[in-house]
């Protein structure tokens, strides 16, 4: 009977022959196999962030706090460092500036021997944690390809559209971003954004004012045209 448990934080499974259990090693294998696509997502998230900043500026929302979140870059660094540390236990280890995907490929055939090294719990644990963190960052709202901009300013038959305008930032850099209202179908392309941004903010101000004057009607100022 053994008292020894897996040293990966949060695992706690009994293990007799190594520092880290086979289940955690299998999880490591899966994580390593996913590193290339995870890196792709992180890079895309960074590129989208840059385009989002450009979008917010083009709309003239200078007062809006810009999403200066650098989480994707930080998560990418952490993942690369965790992989670099883990592969150093391998005989004849390497290459300080290797990229995450290359490191994952190097490490993968050694996951079984890594499990038996003295610091396996810490090393494997950090790779698993860094990858989980990076996947979570990729899914943060500020890295998604669409975000709300404000209330739709369109007026039809003297009625204000009650839809919400959203910005769509395509992954593909060759496709230009657009603003779309799903309720009335209005679309604005980047060259129309300064004007659209002004109208959206006017509409926002109207709605805010109307909310403060409880019960009164929202005034129509739809004379500016589309
Ligand atoms: Zn384990
Ligand atoms: Zn609309």
SSE order and pairing:
Layout: H1 22-58, H2 71-87, H3 100-107, H4 111-115, H5 120-138, E1 146-151, E2 155-156, E3 159-160, E4 164-168, E5 178-181, E6 187-189, H6 193-212
Antiparallel strand pairs: 1-4, 2-3, 4-5, 5-6
Helix pairs in contact: 1-2, 1-3, 1-5, 2-3, 2-5
One zinc ion binds at residues 6, 8, 11, 13, 20-21, 23-24.
Summarize the structure.
This protein has about 230 residues and is α+β, with helices and mostly antiparallel strands.
How does this structure look, described?
With 226 residues, the chain is an alpha+beta fold. It folds into 2 domains: 22-141, no CATH class; 146-212, no CATH class. The protein is built from 6 helices and 6 strands, in the order H-H-H-H-H-E-E-E-E-E-E-H. It has helices at residues 22-58, 71-87, 100-107, 111-115, 120-138, 193-212, and strands at residues 146-151, 155-156, 159-160, 164-168, 178-181, 187-189. A hairpin with a 5-residue loop joins strand 5 (178-181) and strand 6. Mean pLDDT is 82; it is low at 63-68 and 222-226. The structure holds zinc ion (2 copies). One zinc ion binds next to loops.
């Amino acid at each position: 009977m053994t008292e020894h448990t897996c040293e990966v934080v949060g695992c706690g499974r009994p293990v007799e022959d190594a520092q880290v259990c086979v289940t955690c090693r299998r999880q490591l294998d899966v994580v390593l196999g996913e590193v290339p696509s995870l890196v792709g997502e992180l890079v895309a998230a960074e590129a989208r962030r840059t385009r989002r900043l450009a979008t917010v500026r083009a709309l003239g929302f200078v007062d809006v706090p810009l999403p200066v979140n650098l989480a994707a870059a930080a998560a990418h660094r952490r993942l690369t460092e965790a992989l670099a540390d883990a592969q150093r236990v391998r005989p004849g280890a390497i290459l300080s500036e290797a990229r995450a995907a290359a490191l994952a490929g190097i490490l993968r055939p050694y996951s079984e021997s890594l499990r038996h090294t003295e610091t396996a719990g810490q090393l494997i644990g950090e790779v698993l944690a860094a990858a989980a963190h990076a996947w979570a960052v990729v899914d943060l709202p500020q890295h998604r390809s669409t975000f709300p901009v404000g209330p739709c300013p369109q007026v039809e038959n003297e009625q204000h559209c009650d839809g919400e305008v959203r910005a769509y930032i395509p992954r593909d850099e060759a496709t230009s971003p657009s603003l779309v209202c799903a309720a009335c179908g209005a679309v604005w392309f980047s060259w129309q954004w300064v004007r659209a941004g002004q109208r959206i903010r006017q509409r926002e101000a109207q709605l805010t004012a109307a909310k403060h004057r409880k019960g009164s009607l929202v005034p129509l100022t739809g004379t500016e045209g589309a």
